[in-house]
Amino acid sequence: MELPPLHMWIIFYLISFVMLLWAAFLTAQGVMLWVSFFLVIVVIGVNFWVVYNEIKKHAARKELQRFYTSGVTSDKKDTIDRVLK
């Protein structure tokens, strides 16, 4: 699976880690529990969304690669002709 540049992942997870630390601090202080809960939900949701999109992108690339590497049939020839026109 092709991953985005490493520095993008590092920045993404550093921001996520800071948000979780801030949520833990707020929870330990006993103030603004709803804010800490919201931060945890946002971090989990964004991480799920990013991983889900990476899996979809990988599946699309794999399907495109399979399309290009398989033999040319009449259906594919029609598709290729439509794309090239």
Question: What order do the helices and strands come in, and which of them pair?
Answer:
Blueprint: H1 6-29, H2 33-69, H3 74-84
Helix pairs in contact: 1-2
Query: How much helix, percentage-wise, in residues?
Result: over 70%
The assembly state of the depicted protein chains is single chain
Mean pLDDT: 81
Count of discrete domains: 1
Number of β-strand runs: 0
Structural class label: mainly alpha
User: Main β-sheet, in a few words?
Assistant: none
Strand-and-helix sequence, N→C?
HHH
Count, helices: 3
| CA-based shape | rod-shaped
The Cα radius of gyration reads 22 Å
Q: Kindly estimate the percentage of residues that lie in beta strands according to DSSP.
A: under 5%
Low-confidence segments, ≥5 residues, pLDDT <50? none
For the terminal residues, how far apart are their CA atoms? Answer: 32 Å
Tell me about this structure.
Helix 1 runs antiparallel to helix 2 (33-69). The two termini are 32 Å apart. This protein has helices at 6-29, 33-69, 74-84. The chain has one domain (6-70). The chain is an all-alpha fold and 85 residues long. The mean pLDDT is 81.
List keywords for this structure.
about 80 residues, about 85% helix, mainly alpha
How is this structure best summarized?
The chain is mostly helical and about 80 residues long.
